[in-house]
Here is the input.
Amino acid sequence: MTTTTATTTPVTAAPATTARPTAGSLTSTLVVARRTLVHFMRTPQLLVVATVQGAMFLLIFRYVFGGAISGLPGVSYVDFLVPGYVVTGVLFAGTGAASGVAEDLQHGVVDRLRSLPIPRAAVAAGRALAENALVVWGAAITTAIGFAVGFRPGGSIGGNLVAFGLVVAFGFAFTWLFMLIGLVAGSAQAAQGMSLMVFPLTFLSSAYVPVDTMPGWMQPIARNQPITTMVDAARAWVLDDPVAALGHSTTYFTVRALLWCAVLVAVFAPVAIARYR
Here is the structure.
């Protein structure tokens, strides 16, 4: 009789599937920002439009309306106008942010970014950083044109740089609002139209005319909205005597402006990040 011996092969457990490593938040944010900036550079029309638009409207206010509008007592209209126009110029850049985000969402770019092993907040933060680079470009061009048409700040060089930094911070805060508009609009055309609803705030502010010249019932609204606060902060840093011209110290306006920036980011950034998710 023949005996057959069966050999058993031990069953080994299948190796556990390892999750893909997730990139760090800072690295992911910078990569997304770089991707967006490269896209901007490959679309030079964005930079051209920002430059031409800033020059065109500044020249209109300077030479068409400047003869009929007066600034603050002891301050020429061009010195009154340019800080206000540089601040409101960040809203023109914001219109592009809204339509750009809507276009990325419509073309599936956001979906591809969501599929990557990166923190979801990095997608929104990277886009916000890239959009803020356009804000810096537009503010720099507009400031240069302001010098060309007669703007002469009275503050120190350090004060002028602080004023420019406040404009950049304000642009970053408002970028989150415009990104949220782009995320909920559904299309680039709708996003551009919805973002234009912010522009009445620029005229209901101290950007182009003193608040004291407005009707009495309108003055409290105009004086306490964010654009007026930021315009007054930028003006305070570039005027010789901000207390005499504006009624308060530079610190007063700067603190109020930074508080508004913090409020805008705290309100709109979490909602925009949630929409990206």
